Amino acid sequence: MKRLLVCAALIAWSSLASAVVYKWTDAQGKLQYGDRPPDGVHAEVVELLGTHPSTARNASSTPAPASSGRPVAANPTPKDAEDKKAVDQDVAQVKDKQCTEAQDRYKKLIEGRRLYKAGPDGERQFMTSEEIDTERLNAKRDVDQICNSTT
Fold this sequence. Notes:
Layout: H1 2-17, E1 21-25, E2 31-34, E3 44-46, E4 55-56, E5 64-65, H2 78-111, E6 116-118, E7 124-126, H3 129-147
Antiparallel strand pairs: 1-2, 1-3, 4-5, 6-7
């Protein structure tokens, strides 16, 4: 019975802990936090551990997207351009790595003679010709999708 009560209390508490927290500056210039900002004040959503950015309230009380929890500048700064370039380079590196892995897998399936996969106990289970053909088609599809995609 105690376990049931503890579980119910934890579930109720977890819903409260996942509330959205806003941050705004009051008339005296002090930083304020709360679950509901006052009307007519621009507020930002505070990203808490385990939460995702959602929306922020502005002066007109219409929700505006808060993509990274910080205000978006109207004119991108050189720092923003450098950050975007760094992210693009990282994405390109990951895409190249995935493409290389897909090509290696396809090459092994084409050049391999007696192909196998690991069984439930780790033993080798040799694949039939039909299974190999299916894996080759899937690997070719992966190469085409990963290496030739523009996004």
